[in-house]
Amino acid sequence: MTDSLAIVGAGAAGAAAAYRLRDAAPDVTVFEKSRGVCGRAATRRRDGCRYDYGANYVKPGDGPVGDLVRDLGEDGLHDVAQPVWTFDGDGSVEPGRDSDEPKWTWEAGITQLAKRLFARTDAAVHRETRIESLSRAGDAWTLTDADGTTHGPFADVLLTPPAPQTADLLAATDWDDDRLAAAREAVAAVPYRSIVTAVLRYDFDVDREWYALVNTDGAHEVGWLARESCKPGHVPDGELLVVQMAPDWSRAHCDRDPDWQTDRAAEHAAALLGDDRLLDPAWTDTQGWRYALPDDAVDAEPVAAVRDAGLHVAGDWVAGEARVHAAVESGLAVGDRIR
Ligand SMILES: Cc1cc2nc3c(=O)[nH]c(=O)nc-3n(C[C@H](O)[C@H](O)[C@H](O)COP(=O)(O)OP(=O)(O)OC[C@H]3O[C@@H](n4cnc5c(N)ncnc54)[C@H](O)[C@@H]3O)c2cc1C
C-alpha cells in the first residue's frame, strides 16, 4: 500500500499528475470512465476526418506547459497559423482578438496531449472504469467502480473529474471525518457553463482568412465557430466546421434532438459566413458538454484541509481557469506535492 496513488480521470490534469510522478516512488493507477483519454480535450474520427470537438487547442500559458508540450515531441504538433477573428450579436465579423501565443493541436488530434503524457509513465490506465465511491479505513483508501469491483488500498487518491462529478464522489465517500463535508460543499459550489458543440461537414472548401470566430459581446446564440481544415491532417478535403453554441442557448436546448441542434447551428454558420451552401452539410455530429467550463475556482482552504489524509483534487476548476494548460499546471502541482 505504501506509496500508491489512485487517479480518478485521465484528462489533462490526471495525465499531468501521472507524468510528474513518472520517476518517483508511487505506483500510479488511473481510472477513466470513458474509452479514450484526455477528457474535455477530445477528438473524434469519421470518414477520414479528425476533429477536436471539445477544447480547440492548447495554449502554453505563462508556466511550464510550453516547454512540456515541446518536450513531448514536435512530430505531429501544429500551431494553428490562421488568426481568430470576432463577431458581435448582429453577426458582424471583424479582424482581431488573436495573440502571438501558439494555438497547439496535433495532427492526430488534441488527445495526443494525454496520450503522450501517459506514454512516458508506467501508470496503469484502466479505461471504461467509472469510480462510484471511495472509502477510508485506517490510513488507506479503496475505490469501488460501477461494476462493484473494489480497487486498492491506496495511500493517496487524486480526484480530477469536473467539480460537480467530484462532489458526487465526495458525497459517496465513506470517511468519518468532519473535514469531508466542508470539502464536498466547496467543490459542489463551483459554477459551470454548458456548451452544445455542433459539427458540420461540407464536401466543398470554405476559404477564409481566419481559423475561428469568437463572439465577444455574449449577445449571439453562437459562442465560437472554427474551421477544422486549418489543422493539418484533420480534414482531407472540403471543410468541417466546429460550432460551439453559447452557454444560455446550450442550457436551454441541450436536450433537443441533435438534428434540430445542427440545423440551428448550420443556419447560424450560413448567416455569419454569408454562404447559403452551409445550410446543407454532408453529415453532422453533436456533443452536449453539461459541465463544459468552470466559471470560478474552488475555495482552496477546505480542499487543502483533506490533503494530509491523502485526498487530493486537480483540474481546471482547481486552477480557476477553464483552459487545458491550467488543468495541466494543476495536475503537475499535485504531482509535486505528492512527490
Ligand atoms: C466545448 C469546449 C471547448 C473548450 N475550448 C478550450 C480551448 O479552446 N482551449 C482550452 O485551453 N480549453 C478549452 N476548454 C476547456 C478544457 O477542455 C478543459 O479546461 C480541460 O480539458 C480540463 O481538463 P481536466 O483534466 O481538468 O478535466 P477533464 O478533461 O474533464 O478530465 C476529467 C476526466 O475524468 C473522467 N471522469 C469523470 N468522472 C469519472 C469517474 N467517476 N470515474 C472515472 N473517470 C471519471 C472524465 O471522463 C474525464 O476524462 C474547452 C472545453 C469545452 C467543453
Going across the major beta sheet, what is the strand order? 7-6-16-17-18-15-19
Report the biggest beta sheet as strand number plus sense, adding barrel if it closes.
7 strands, mixed
Strand content range: 25-35%
Report the end-to-end length measured between terminal Cα atoms.
16 Å
**Could you say what the CATH topology of the largest domain is called?**
FAD/NAD(P)-binding domain
Low-confidence parts, pLDDT < 50 over ≥5 residues?
Answer: none
Structural class: alpha/beta
Q: State Rg.
A: 21 Å
Counted by DSSP, the helix tally is: 10
Considering the protein shown, what is the CATH homologous superfamily of the largest domain? FAD/NAD(P)-binding domain
Which CATH class of the largest domain is shown?
A: Alpha Beta
Task: Give a list of the ligands.
Answer: flavin-adenine dinucleotide
Shape: globular
Named at the architecture level, the CATH assignment of the largest domain is: 3-Layer(bba) Sandwich
Domain Amine oxidase: 102-338
InterPro entries: Amino_oxidase, FAD/NAD-bd_sf
GO molecular function: oxidoreductase activity
Pfam family, one: NAD_binding_8
